[in-house]
Amino acid sequence: MDQIKVGFALCGSFCTFSNVLPQIQRLIDADYDVYPIMSEFAYSTDTRFGKAKDFIDKIENMCGKKVMSTITEVEPIGPKAMLDALVIAPCTGNTLGKLANGVTDSSVTMACKAHLRNARPVVIAISTNDGLGASARNVGQLLNARNIYFVPYGQDDYSKKPTSLIADFNLIEHTLEFALKNVQVQPLIK
């Protein structure tokens, strides 16, 4: 059987990268063929959580492939039917809003749009400080979208960030397995 080809797209929730990168390795260890994608912002921004180049080097070494970080690089995902599934982890509130409203102005949103044209699954691992605030309607809209599957999530820190939501990144592979069967893993809210 051929390896399942999975795009793994990272958005700019930099504080979660240390939890997300091991999930890329888990997919590789489970024999998925992982194609790395980063938003332009994630690809080019150094933060207190690390330097962009260090993250890029680590991801490229794990996957054995160059990180795709431009609209031009990811656009062929659709016409060439390059992927069996696409994971967006972390998926920020900004990206959620764009996906929910059909905005395609970044490498990650273009990868998603291109991939969805083939009616294949997109797995979203949310990480946003306003998931129970301004982004709540976008979460709801995407929960009802065809071929979109959410990694189970819960409140990040209810006392200091009462509207914040974060996925259980350890459930990415499990959610992906279900999404490939067109099933939303349950329970969704932890």
Task: Give structural notes.
- This protein is 36% helix and 22% strand.
- The chain has 190 residues and is α/β, with parallel strands linked by helices.
- The chain has one domain: Rossmann fold.
- Strands 1, 2, 3, 4, 5, 6 and 7 form a seven-stranded mixed β-sheet that branches.
- Helix 1 packs parallel to helix 3.
- It starts with a strand and ends in an 11-residue tail after the last helix.
- GO terms for molecular function: catalytic activity.
Determine the structural class based on helices, strands and strand pairing: alpha/beta
Strand content: 15-25%
- Oligomeric composition of the shown chains: single chain
Q: Count every helix, treating DSSP H or I runs of 4 or more residues as helices.
A: 8
Any idea what the CATH superfamily is called? Flavin prenyltransferase-like
SSE pattern, N- to C-terminal:
EHEHHHEHHEHEEEH
The number of distinct structural domains comes to 1
The unreliable regions are none
CATH topology: Rossmann fold
Describe the global form. globular
So what's the CATH class? Alpha Beta
Radius of gyration: 15 Å
What about the largest sheet?
7 strands, mixed
The average pLDDT value, as a whole number, equals 96
Report how far the terminal alpha carbons are from each other. 34 Å
Count of DSSP E strands? 7
